[in-house]
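This part of the workshop introduces the protein records we will be handling. An example says more than a description, so a record of this kind follows:
>
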Amino acid sequence: MMGQHERSDSLFYYFRLEDQIPRDHLLRLIDEHVDLSFVRERLKPFYSSTGRPSIDPEVLLRLLLIGYLYGITSERRLLEEVKMHLAYRWFTRLDFGAEIPDHSTFSKNRHGRFRQSGVFREIFEEVVRRCLEAGLVEGKNLAVDATLIAADASQQSRVARERLPQVAQVSHTVQQYLSELDEQNPVSKAEMVSTTDPDAVLAGKAPGTAIMGYYDNYVIDTASRVILGVEASPALFHQQTVAARKMMERVQKLGVRPESLAADKAYGSGEFLYWVLGQGVQPHIPVIDRQHQTYGRFTREQFRYEPAENAFYCPQGKPLRFRGVGRSSQVYLYQARERDCQACPQKKHCTRGASRRVVVHWYEAARQTTRELAGTPEYQRSRRLRYRIEALFAELKLRMRLGRVRLRRLWNVNEQFLLAATAQNIKRLIRFLAPPATKLRPQAG
């Protein structure tokens, strides 16, 4: 006989939440292997000793981590999911008798304790230390790159910089931005500024695809794909090397001593290559070398340099004397006399101008050292492994749904990038520490 199940609502259910979470669930494994209790002690000085007890900051952190681990980008929706999801409640220590915090709690703490303490940077670095202690990170060969993330602002929100004082009368965001201009601000000289998010920059890799955005910069260990450094920066080309230096300095403070750093040509400026070599690291990076674009004419290598005279001599034996310094392009300028070039039988093979010029980069020695590394097996291997960073950016945008930031201003965006990178590292750490027979079930209840 066919049975029929009638729905009945019991007034009480007797079960233990702990028993409902599978042993191989991602959140259970994180709880076992990653200690987050230090957050409470770190934030203790930022709480008053009197008044009503606040929400435990560790609970707030666990809530935020769930959002990044499962691609829940809305904090309102995150709290709704926690109400219904047993594993989320168990991981956050919010049992059925506990009140779920309001979404505004995140904003209040973000603008107060979280920003003042720099706790998200500490959480990220604590997870990196855990990866180092577990032996997951090799730390010998690193890679750096940046990806463009859309800002929560439109092109139409931009106004001329001269109009900002007028806009500031009705916009708190612009008021705050103007008050911060005396501090170090990487977009303080922009001609057009967004009134919605003044730190966002119009950028794009192809014509017609420009968006308001930020760069999410990563330094990774290519062997394990663990993110060792993360930095938010305005989407300006020169900010990529600025962010790379910050990240590499922090990586070294964590005790990592890399042998090589791989990157694409955007990082191939002489100044950056000089800095990398100065850290005792081999730059496996293509050199930005526009000066060698001679289009079939004599190359600089065909000019003989005389150190005693500080002059070059062309293949015809005519001197090119030192003429000055190009500060914007960071070069030393050498030029021949016009009368020597006009009478030269090889002029058509040398220059189209009135006289031949030779430029030498300030950091030419570093550039040449980097060129010589290009043919080594280590360089070729490093260049192949560098593309692993692209998989992390794909995971960031597709799995974690961070193709567009939901918070505004650079420091808020940095929080999102730090938490996303922390979640990515935690996943790799758990896969490394979990028993071989354990199959992670991140989407299971």
User: Anything to note?
Assistant: The first strand starts at residue 141 and ends at 150. The chain has a mean pLDDT of 84.
